[in-house]
Design goal:
The complex is a heterodimer of chains A (181) and B (227).
Chain A (H helix, E strand, L loop, with lengths): L2 H14 L3 H23 L2 H17 L11 H20 L19 H6 L2 H11 L3 H13 L3 H7 L4 H18 L3
Chain B lengths: L9 H7 L4 H13 L1 H14 L13 H12 L15 H5 L3 H10 L15 E6 L5 E7 L5 E5 L9 E9 L6 E6 L4 E3 L8 E10 L12 E6 L5
Antiparallel strand pairs in B: 1-2, 1-8, 2-3, 3-6, 4-5, 4-7, 7-8
Helix pairs in contact in B: 1-3, 2-3
The chains are: A mainly alpha (181), B alpha+beta (227).
């Protein structure tokens, strides 16, 4: 774990003790990235703002649930934002993307692949994702960014629900084994 | 139960986002209570997080921080790590004498010698694991009990504190009603005989809808007979 990630974990532990200035630092360090994630998932600035607000408030209130010995602080915050974005998508629906649905979500970033490869864990994940078949990799990427349930994924790719569940579960198992944990 | 040959991985599926609404809600309840599940989820979050690292940060609107700042200023005192079971709703639903005994062992109770000589039991209600009293309860000559805050107590908007009596030999606490942040006097007749502890939980506005604590028990104090 990098020094930055370790210190972020320390800041979240300080939040659990009620340290508001630590919370401010967490917000300053992470809100830009987290807001971008919320924007990408909801594709709506107002919704993304609500998602970020709710997730950060949850981070403050549930800071005691973060365990630096097990989890990574960045990943924990990302999770909170993604789960609130999924809540939003499930409640208010998502923009219809029609025939483009099967394509990878449009990414405004210059070279996401290079960014993914830029860190050791990113490179490992990239390599493990590369080991999945195209359909499984697509399903997992769609789920990660759009919060699609098994049923919604099945509708999206016009496949039986049971098959989709199987593919996702096999994909998760393969990733877990490939990542060596 | 599985409807595929592959075993389900609820933690992985929760993190990935493929659970349906009911399954997600169940996973979130489990997260609050099940440390092992929380660890599984944390490991999946860490595995998948690099997917979002490619994203270019975007400055969020300023109002978000301003609103957060207001919200955390009103947040209740933290419940320290290690007492997580007390935060679990399910525990209360099945509360047992043993769990009340657990509360007794977790709560650090400070008994204050009241300057104006209370007529009866006195107790301080403290947050678990902390030394500083948050509320002090004193029995008056009339038999009523005054519960007063020490310093200011923040209650999140849309929530209320609720006071409970834990009675020796009884499994479930008895509700004593909403406790305003600036304290309250409880009439003599409202305090059940045999009350051994006072508890304060965080509840929806207006108090627990179930007659049992539904939110975290934030403060507790043992009644000490001074007579």
């Amino acid at each position: 774990m990098s020094d930055a990630a370790e210190s972020l974990g320390g800041l979240i532990e300080a939040c659990a003790r009620g340290d508001r200035s630590a919370f401010r630092r967490v917000y300053d360090l992470q809100s830009g990235r987290l807001y971008a994630v919320a924007l990408r998932m909801t594709r709506d600035a107002a919704a993304a703002s609500d998602v970020l607000h709710d997730a950060m408030l949850q981070a403050w209130r549930r800071a005691d649930r973060f365990d630096a010995a097990i989890g990574n602080a960045e990943a924990w915050l990302l999770g909170l934002v993604r789960y609130r974005a999924i809540d939003h998508l499930r409640r208010y629906g998502r923009e219809q993307t029609g025939v483009d649905a099967l394509e990878e979500p449009a990414d405004p970033d210059p070279d996401p692949l290079q960014t993914l490869l830029a860190t050791d864990d990113g490179a490992r994940l990239h390599s493990c994702l590369g080991g999945l078949d195209d359909r499984t990799r697509l399903l997992m990427t769609l789920a990660f960014w759009e919060g699609l349930s098994h049923r919604e994924l099945a509708e999206r790719i016009a496949s039986p629900l049971g098959s989709v569940k199987s593919w996702i579960r096999r994909g998760l198992l393969a990733l877990k084994e490939c990542l060596g944990r | 139960m599985s409807d595929t040959i592959e075993p389900p991985d609820p933690a992985g599926e929760y993190v990935l986002g493929t659970l349906d609404d009911a399954e997600r809600a169940a996973a979130e309840r489990r997260l609050a209570q099940d440390r092992g599940f929380r660890a599984e989820v944390a490991r999946w979050e860490t595995r998948l997080a690099p997917l979002a690292r490619a994203i270019t940060p975007v400055a969020p609107p300023r109002w978000i921080w301003r609103r957060l700042e207001g919200a955390i200023a009103a947040a209740p005192p933290r419940v320290p790590r290690g007492v997580a079971p007390w935060r679990a709703v399910a525990l209360w639903r099945g509360a047992t004498a043993a769990s009340l005994a657990l509360a007794a062992s977790l709560g650090i109770v400070v008994v204050l010698e009241a300057r104006d000589r209370p007529a009866g039991p006195a107790t301080a209600l403290v947050a678990f694991g902390q030394k500083d009293a948050v509320f002090v309860a004193e029995r008056l000559a009339s038999g009523a009990v005054d519960v007063r805050p020490i310093g200011s107590v923040g209650v999140p908007s849309g929530r209320d504190l609720e006071l409970w009596a834990a009675i020796d030999g009884k499994k479930l606490p008895v509700p004593l009603g909403v406790l305003p942040a600036d304290g309250r006097r409880i009439a003599a007749g409202e305090i059940p005989a045999g009350t051994a502890k006072l508890l304060v939980s965080l509840e929806p506005k207006g108090g627990s809808p179930t007659g049992l604590p539904t939110g975290p028990v934030l403060f507790a104090g043992s009644i000490i007979r001074s007579d």
